[in-house]
Input
Amino acid sequence: MINSELLPSATEKSKCKGKNCEMSRSLDGEGESTMNRKRLRRDCESTINPNVVIDENSTDEDDNEQSADVENGPLALILDNRKVLHCSMCDGHLTVPIFQCENGHVACSFCCITLKRKECYSCQSTIGSSRCLAIEKILEVVRVKCQNSIYGCKETVTYSKMHDHQIYDCYYAPCSCPISDCKFVGTSRHLYQHLSGEHNNSVVKFQYNNFFKITVNIDGKFSVLQEEKNDDVLFILNNNTGSLGNLVSVCCIASVRKDLYYDIVARCVTGTTLKIQSSTWSSKVRSDIPSPFGFLLVPPYMFNCNGQLELEICIWGPGETPADWLSAKQLK
Output
């Protein structure tokens, strides 16, 4: 139902009609400024609806600035299907540069440049030589919330940088608990707290820049290492079995990449000593794959009759570099 109080009365309509005529004559006349014409319109609007608030001090420049703000300001959009911004080949997020085939199907730079794919999967026409500049411009201005917002991230980034932010830069990226059969997922800091409370007996405590001893088995079980003071990263001592022996390395589980150095020393009763210096491989889940940055190959004869071997490990803190590592770089 319409509220009759908000409707203009016959008298107000008459006034408005008069002002409309005056405004019309002013528009046709010479010498009338744009500011006066706009003021007449505002007067007419206020007569029709007294609830409209008119700023009498507003100028023509203010009106122009407001109009420019509306045209150039942000526009809220709702994307019903995210797939429209996905690569037609790998179904991953589109990244600049973006290529298109002659029929308009788009593909990401990874498929066209890195993998050197030349045939469109959708229509089998040639792809990889023509850029799709329209979509590129959209990806560079459209801002989206980080998908890790459910874990606390409040960042909004351009769509073209969303993938890199969530994979490499987001401190709220979820990490999975390395303990078998545990389904916990959270930020690396929450994971640290989770292990301290729920799996405290399953972790080995250590301190940065100090050697500590740990016993590994020949059957290839991993160990979880937890620094006593730093609460935003966990470490996994991987002990993978191979045809020539055990492949031992250290990786870290963290929301963002951690490049930390470590030493591993293995000694057996026969006097054989093996040593490796390497850097940690970062991941958000525990993996049984040996570190791509290097590993210590321990032959079977170094394990005792019980299938065990004691290792000495030192993990260097953030910003710390082993002295002999620096010496080796200087020799090169």
The longest helix spans residues 10-28.
